[in-house]
């Protein structure tokens, strides 16, 4: 008995140590994210020095309609003169925007082509990588201290969620996707998320109640967090699309947007690109979200004796699912593409958020493990 | 059905161009075409047709999907009688005005209410009305061939061209071979090769929508034929799966008692372990019930352990461990020392440290000191871990220092009146509390083995020891295999539908006016995608390498710059 007790106390002590290490790492990650935040701001600020206005040029220079024809008549083969002999390159593909769509070039990104801005942008990304690694270590330490997956309560959810969201962003960058413009809004909301976690939601390490012991839990919750992170990226792109689209509409109808709006919007990708990006992101995780709900149903079948019982959390997962399905449908329905579909995507993401915060805090149900 | 999809409508292009492109992109999907919501033709059939067309249009499907998610919301915010009857009663009591209105609107059982049901039934009628014609259309597309090349390939979203010395026939032949090798369905149509790929997208989409129907049907079937019963079992006791043995039982409308799977089991031992220290001291770590079970009337006994997430599965039935608690073993004697009651009494847990309460009811066999027949009742309050100073709540869920607090009553329990009573509560309206000589009610804390003597020779009550009980829920939800199968197909169908791009490629090779062959490639996707030009570039590269180049002097405009986006 006494030997066992000593062993337990020892284990408890190391656990407490790990929990403290985790807390320190999380605070450090917040510090680095804050640095990254200011560096992204510097990127945007320096970027504002360059006065590019591709969008304005594309939309105001020629009357609509002429652009498409000019593009279509684009030349066929490029020839490079190398040392006097002509070398034929492979044929280049000419891409036309969909009929009726605006043919607007993408902005250069937050740095706006400014060298110093670009430098700050690169530093900001490096800082984001560092912060991500530190936060990841913090989550890992937390997991080791509680000896289970780090998502037993809302504090841990918030940590894992923001780590995953930043991870998704970094993966996109690693895949050479041009989405550095996402950095500032992302880091801002990660800081909010972590601030909320360490102040309001903080929970000392604890164990799971038996209903949470199941490998379906690991599958269900980890995919849910991943889906949330990707949906989040989609939602940010959708909001930026709405702004950029308004901006383009204003220009196209002869309006004159303010200097700040012009400076920011000119540096973002074209509205069509943002729209396509957010659609792809949302569509790509939708099957995973479907899987998440089904994994949850299987788990509920094991834990509670019914795979579906309209528990508030289940209901909101379903509502979120239907809302995203509505969004995908809207994209395939005439008269619903573009802004209307974008609004539906935002409503769908709001449903996801409500399921995560609202249901945990305001509604009681079987999923009341939130630890608040 | 018209052969245009909304995607290809252009405003700037000339009429003929538009028609031609329309033909090129026709049947690239099976989505129903959009119609203006015009007025119906006269007559019943006209109205029906109109209604059906509306119902199976994408616009109405969208609306119904939206309504479905909107309609699901109230059920998550208002208490539901299916999940928690007492909360509904509580809500009714607190809201005199809203309560009856909510009740009328079916808001206490949203998911089986008329209006919610009509939304999803309409949605599924719409779904079926949509799938059937789409399936036929798709079969037609599989039988047919990809449409021939539009006159001006330059109008397509992705386009490339070059000039070569190779004969047009050879180029077309090479293109046909290449496209077929890339698993396009390709054929020669006039001066061009027409090819299409990505049919699995449509298959996935149809499979997904059909899987939705399978899932809903399985779900509905499960609801109609399901059954769910609870049984509290003391360690050492058994249960056999018949209706009469349940403490409570719910079933779907079409359930029949013959549907109950024949089996029985005995609870051998219940084990609970709890966090011993730290901030979450007392949090359960494990719950396990060791049982012996047998299937059918003469099945042989088998041993197993039922845990919280690991039900015992027998046929369509699953036996879940849902709760546990304590049952003090009680002996009651009358004034002469005769045992009138001796059995464990299951108590109801009140909190996470298993502070429990309940009632001990001695219904017959007891005579008081005067020899008159009476009934006895004891209100029991139980702390599995009693820490002095904390009289009203247990400090830990395990049996570390059990204490049973009892107050005795005598008189009429009221159990013979025919009104059902809770086994955990005493109806004290015809009972008198036992009082000592000073007129104080008799109330004592007993440890295992201790006895409380009732005043004036009324007898005694002994707390012999403690047993544990476990509550089991036996559920039967038929067709859940179908629901799972549907779900799996739905996920794969969805992945196919969203990740596979259906696209067409045309390769035209004709002799130009100067005798040199002009090769043109055009690509068209169902939706705009960066993959279409990428793939086209790839194909063009390979084909280009197979054709012999023209001398540099022949090439037009050497300063040419390719359009942006080609290499993204
Ligand atoms: C239970 C209701 C429904 C759900 C959850 C649902 C879900 C979905 C989803 C997620 C997609 C996206 C796949 C993609 O874009 O390729 C989709 C596509 C589609 N759905 Fe549904 N759907 C439902 C009902 C219907 C109904 C009633 C119709 C008939 C009007 C319909 C017709 C279509 C069509 C034609 C597409 C393909 C659109 C395209 O070609 O891009 N769906 N559906």
Blueprint of the fold:
The complex is a heterodimer of chains A (372) and B (568).
Chain A: H1 2-47, H2 54-60, H3 66-72, E1 79-82, E2 85-88, E3 94-95, H4 115-146, H5 154-174, H6 183-199, H7 215-252, H8 259-265, H9 271-304, H10 312-331, H11 339-362
Antiparallel strand pairs in A: 1-2
Chain B: H1 15-24, H2 43-55, H3 58-77, H4 85-94, H5 98-104, H6 114-143, E1 158-164, H7 168-181, E2 185-189, E3 192-197, H8 200-225, E4 227-234, E5 238-240, E6 248-251, E7 263-274, E8 284-295, E9 302-307, E10 312-314, E11 317-333, E12 339-344, E13 348-349, E14 356-362, E15 375-383, E16 403-411, E17 431-433, E18 443-446, E19 451-454, E20 459-476, H9 480-499, E21 503-511, E22 517-525, H10 531-546
Antiparallel strand pairs in B: 1-22, 2-3, 3-21, 4-6, 4-20, 5-7, 7-8, 8-9, 10-11, 11-12, 11-20, 13-14, 14-15, 15-16, 16-17, 16-18, 19-20, 21-22
Helix pairs in contact in B: 3-6, 6-8, 7-10, 8-9
Q: What key phrases describe this protein's structure?
A:
heterodimer, A: 372 residues, mainly alpha, 11 helices, 68% helix, globular, disordered C terminus, B: 568 residues, alpha+beta, 7-stranded antiparallel sheet, 6-stranded antiparallel sheet, binds protoporphyrin IX containing FE
Write a structural description:
- The complex is a heterodimer of chains A (372) and B (568).
- With 372 residues, chain A is mainly α.
- Chain A is 68% helix and 3% strand.
- Chain A has helices at residues 2-47, 54-60, 66-72, 115-146, 154-174, 183-199, 215-252, 259-265, 271-304, 312-331, 339-362; strands at residues 79-82, 85-88, 94-95.
- Chain A has a two-stranded antiparallel ribbon with strand order 1-2.
- Chain A is globular and about 60 Å long.
- The two termini of chain A are 35 Å apart.
- In chain B, the strands form 4 sheets. In chain B, strands 4, 6, 10, 11, 12, 19 and 20 form a 7-stranded antiparallel β-sheet that branches. In chain B, strands 13, 14, 15, 16, 17 and 18 form a 6-stranded antiparallel β-sheet that branches. Chain B has a 5-stranded antiparallel β-sheet with strand order 1-22-21-3-2, with helices on one face.
- Chain B is elongated, with a radius of gyration of 39 Å.
- Chain B is of the alpha+beta class.
- The longest helix of chain B has 30 residues, at 114-143.
- Residues 1-14 and 553-568 of chain B have low confidence and may be disordered.
- Chain B is 29% helix and 29% strand.
- Chains A and B meet through helix 1, helix 3, strand 2, strand 3 and helix 9 of A and helix 3, strand 1, strand 8, strand 11 and helix 9 of B.
- Strand 3 of chain A pairs antiparallel with strand 1 of chain B.
- The complex binds protoporphyrin IX containing FE.
- Protoporphyrin IX containing FE (HEM) sits between chains B (29, 31-32, 56, 58, 61, 65, 123, 126-127, 130, 205, 209, 212, 497-498) and A (325, 328-329, 332).
């Amino acid at each position: 008995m006494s030997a066992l007790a000593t062993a337990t106390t020892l284990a408890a002590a190391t656990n407490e140590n790990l929990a403290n290490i985790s807390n320190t790492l999380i605070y450090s990650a917040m510090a680095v994210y804050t640095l990254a935040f200011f560096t992204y701001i510097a990127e945007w600020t320096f970027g504002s020095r360059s006065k590019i206005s591709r969008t304005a040029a594309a939309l105001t220079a020629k009357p609509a309609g002429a652009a498409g024809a000019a593009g279509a008549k684009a030349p066929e083969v490029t020839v490079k003169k190398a040392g006097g002999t002509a070398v034929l390159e492979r044929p280049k593909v000419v891409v036309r925007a969909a009929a009726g769509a605006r043919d607007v070039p993408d902005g250069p990104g937050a740095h706006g082509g400014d060298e110093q801005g670009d430098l700050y942008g690169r530093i900001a990304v490096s800082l984001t990588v560092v912060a991500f690694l530190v936060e990841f270590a913090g989550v890992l330490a937390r997991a080791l201290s509680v000896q289970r997956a780090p998502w037993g309560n809302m504090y841990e959810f918030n940590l894992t969620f923001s780590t995953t969201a930043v991870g998704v962003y970094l993966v996109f960058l690693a895949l050479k996707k041009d989405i550095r413009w996402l950095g500032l809004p992302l880091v801002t909301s990660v800081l909010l998320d972590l601030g909320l976690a360490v102040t309001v939601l903080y929970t000392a390490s604890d164990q799971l109640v038996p209903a949470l012991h199941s490998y379906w839990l690991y599958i269900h919750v980890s995919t849910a967090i991943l889906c949330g992170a990707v949906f989040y990226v989609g939602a940010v792109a959708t909001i930026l699309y709405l702004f950029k689209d308004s901006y383009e509409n204003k220009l196209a109808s002869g309006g004159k947007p303010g200097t700040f709006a012009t400076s920011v919007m000119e540096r973002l990708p074209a509205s069509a690109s943002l729209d396509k990006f957010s659609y792809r992101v949302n569509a790509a995780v939708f099957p995973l979200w479907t899987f998440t709900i089904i994994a949850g149903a299987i788990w509920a079948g094991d834990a509670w004796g019914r795979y579906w019982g309209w528990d508030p959390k289940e209901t909101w997962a379903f509502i979120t699912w239907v809302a995203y399905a509505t969004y995908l449908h809207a994209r395939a329905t005439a008269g619903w593409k573009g802004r209307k579909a974008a609004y539906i995507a935002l409503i769908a993401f709001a449903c996801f958020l409500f399921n995560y915060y609202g249901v945990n805090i305001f509604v009681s149900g079987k999923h009341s493990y939130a630890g608040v | 059905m018209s052969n245009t999809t909304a995607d290809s409508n252009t405003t700037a292009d000339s009429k003929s161009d538009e028609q031609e492109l329309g033909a090129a992109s026709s049947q690239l999907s099976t989505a129903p075409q959009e119609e203006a919501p015009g007025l119906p033709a006269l007559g019943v059939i006209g109205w029906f047709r109109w209604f059906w067309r509306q119902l199976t249009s994408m616009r109405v499907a969208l609306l119904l999907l939206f309504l479905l998610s909107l309609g699901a919301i109230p059920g998550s915010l208002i208490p539901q009688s299916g999940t928690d009857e007492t909360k509904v009663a509580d809500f009714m009591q607190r809201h005199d005005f809203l309560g009856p209105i909510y009740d009328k609107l079916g808001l206490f059982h949203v998911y089986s209410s008329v209006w919610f049901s009509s939304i999803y039934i309409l949605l599924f009628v719409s779904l079926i009305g949509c799938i059937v014609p789409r399936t036929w259309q798709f079969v037609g597309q599989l039988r047919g061939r990809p449409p021939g090349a539009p006159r001006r390939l330059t109008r397509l979203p992705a386009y490339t061209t070059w000039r070569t010395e190779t004969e047009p026939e050879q180029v077309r032949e090479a293109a046909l071979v290449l496209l077929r090798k890339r698993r396009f369905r390709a054929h020669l149509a006039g001066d061009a090769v027409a090819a299409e790929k990505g049919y699995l997208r449509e298959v996935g989409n149809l499979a997904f929508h059909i899987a939705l129907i399978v899932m809903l049907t399985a779900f509905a079937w499960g609801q109609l034929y399901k059954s769910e019963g609870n049984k509290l079992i003391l360690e050492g006791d058994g249960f056999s799966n018949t209706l009469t043995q349940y403490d409570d039982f719910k079933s779907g409308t079409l359930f029949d008692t013959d549907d109950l799977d024949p089996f029985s089991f005995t609870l051998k031992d219940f084990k609970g372990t709890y966090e011993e220290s730290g901030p979450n001291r007392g949090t359960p770590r494990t719950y396990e019930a060791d049982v012996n079970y047998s299937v059918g009337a003469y099945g042989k006994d088998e041993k197993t352990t039922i845990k919280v997430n690991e039900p015992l599965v027998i046929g369509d039935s699953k036996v879940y461990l849902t709760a546990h608690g304590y049952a003090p073993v009680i002996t009651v004697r009358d004034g002469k020392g005769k045992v009138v009651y001796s059995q464990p009494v299951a108590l109801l847990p009140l909190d996470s440290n298993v502070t429990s309460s309940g009632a001990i009811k001695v219904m017959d066999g007891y005579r008081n000191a005067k020899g008159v027949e009476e009934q006895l009742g004891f209100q029991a309050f139980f702390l599995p871990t009693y820490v002095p100073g904390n009289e009203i709540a247990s400090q830990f869920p395990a049996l570390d220092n059990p204490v049973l607090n009892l107050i005795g009553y005598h008189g009429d329990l009221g159990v013979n009146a025919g009104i059902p009573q809770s086994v955990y509560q005493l109806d004290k309206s015809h009972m008198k509390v036992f009082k000592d000589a000073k007129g104080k009610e008799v109330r004592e804390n007993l440890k295992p083995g201790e006895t409380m003597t009732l005043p004036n020779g009324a007898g005694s009550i002994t707390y012999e020891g403690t047993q544990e009980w476990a509550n089991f829920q036996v559920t039967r939800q038929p067709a859940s295999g179908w629901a799972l199968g549907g779900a799996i197909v739905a996920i794969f169908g969805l992945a196919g539908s969203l990740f596979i791009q259906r696209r067409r490629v045309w390769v035209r090779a004709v002799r130009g006016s100067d005798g040199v062959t002009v090769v043109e490639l055009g690509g068209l996707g169902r939706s705009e995608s960066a993959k279409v030009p990428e793939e086209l570039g790839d194909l063009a590269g390979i084909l280009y390498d197979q054709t012999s180049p023209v001398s540099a002097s022949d090439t037009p405009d050497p300063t040419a710059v390719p359009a942006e986006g080609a290499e993204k």
